[in-house]
Write a structure and sequence with these properties.
The structure is a homodimer. Chain A is an alpha+beta fold. In chain A, about 45% of the residues lie in helices and about 20% in strands. The first copy, chain A, binds a DNA duplex through helix 8.
Chain lengths: ~250, ~250
DNA sequence: CGTTTGGTTGACGAAGCTCAAAGCCGGTGG
DNA sequence: CCACCGGCTTTGAGCTTCGTCAACCAAACG
């Protein structure tokens, strides 16, 4: 609960300082946010659409997703989150949840009372700016997803998602991530790309057949040739606004 | 340029005060933002993806849209804006545009230098909160669009969009809007719903045939039975976060 | 070992796309 | 005032992508 404990919140700090100048006091204040730590098993709904939100969640390890349910029983994943991501800040600030959150894998998470976040942002403008920026980047990613779902065919959509995933992984790990394990089932992948499981399955096989990825297990993704996959997936990383990240130069 | 001119910026103010408490000084400061007025003809790109943004735009009258171009020459509209909407605030705050903006109809617009907005938000925390909230609502709408494109079929998508449009119109006009003229061509409607012109055309006819809307001209939309259309379009207005708006109770 | 969960396959059908042409204004210029 | 033009809408025919349904398989787990 205090910043003399191990600084579990540093992943968040690292992400925020990507795009805002925080002085030592700001950082201390952020790391000192009152929080509790929770481990959530995989495939667990953390928040449901319609909930009144009093806490917001930070992913410390593992993966989770935000989603919306639609009338006919379908589900659409609207974004995917990993270490350092403040999930549900948006729900928290808006008061009532317009979307749900679920874990894709088991996750270590920290939760903050919204009021603590509010107080923090009110007392430290730089922190407010950083969090605002964070939500703006989320919105930018949403826009790209809109384009992805609206105007790209199934293979392109999946390729695009795989690229996004690789880059985000790289951003949190500070290393190359051309070889990773997808933290979701094909069903969830379908829910993220607006397709059906069956079709996702076939497209993944096609991608492997075309040499765009290699799969040793069903979930594993090895990107042999980044440029080729990015081109096929119509992927340009700009929308992630990772500007200052070194990797950006490499992944045009 | 001063608040002794006619308060052209009031539509924006009205929208922002929907969800934030602004005191008299805040309001004065907002209305006093240095701006210039521009009339933009219809179908004009105001901002292009990749532009470095120094100004942000406010719609005073008319309609415009934010869009992204995709690799194969397609275009996806990611949101639609009307009187009182601050379009491009997001691009402005992020620095370089991750999406374009174009006018759907001729528009009267005001432009502000970003720095002026920055100064304002820094000196008046309540204004910053209001603008932040505004961008959060935009993000919520993006999420709904993701769900719309990913998990609803063509008729449902279009019905949903028609509902959203009606409610937003109502929000700015403070009156019922079950009868309006769509400010876009079927081609643009297709770009908003991820469909083709041809299919949009056929679906619109089907909606009319089913009595969900009436069309006296190709663009006109008359909603005879809101509840039926909303049900068919899987439309729940919550994601618009119009909470305090009276109309909400009527349109469940 | 059964059971469960996720992945894979095949046959079939439908929603939506493509291409191509024709109709329908409203505007413009002769 | 009429003929023409260009942008938008509408129509039809044929095709493709993706969805549905229904199994079957493989690994993981108790």
């Amino acid at each position: 609960m205090k910043d003399d404990t191990a600084p579990v919140l540093t992943p968040m700090l690292r992400k925020l300082t990507l795009w805002a100048h925080l002085d030592a006091d700001d950082e201390r204040a952020l790391l000192g946010l009152p929080h509790s730590l929770v481990t959530v098993p995989r495939d667990e709904p953390i928040v449901r659409e319609g909930d009144r939100i009093s806490h917001c969640w930070l992913v410390l390890s593992g993966f989770c997703a935000r989603y919306k349910d639609v009338g006919d029983g379908g589900r659409q994943i609207v974004s995917i989150h990993m270490t350092g991501d403040l999930v549900d800040l948006q729900n928290a600030l808006l008061g009532i949840a317009d979307h749900g959150v679920l874990t894709l894998t088991a996750c270590d998470m920290a939760t903050f009372p919204v009021e603590a976040v509010r107080e923090l942002t009110n007392s430290r403008p730089a922190v407010k700016d950083a969090l605002w920026h964070d939500t703006l980047v989320d919105a930018s990613i949403h826009r790209e997803w809109v384009a992805n779902l609206g105007r790209r065919d199934a293979p392109t959509r999946i390729e695009h998602l795989l690229c996004e995933f690789a880059l985000k992984l790289e951003a949190v790990n500070l290393g190359e991530q051309l070889n990773y394990e997808l933290p979701m089932t094909q069903h969830q992948l379908a829910d993220a790309t607006g397709l059906t499981v069956v079709h996702v399955n076939r497209v993944l096989q096609a991608l492997a057949r075309d040499g765009l990825i290699e799969r040793v297990t069903p979930r594993s993704v090895l990107i042999g040739n980044w440029k080729r996959l990015a081109a096929a997936g119509d992927f340009r990383s700009d929308y992630l606004h990772l500007g200052s990240l070194k990797s950006r130069s490499r992944h045009r």
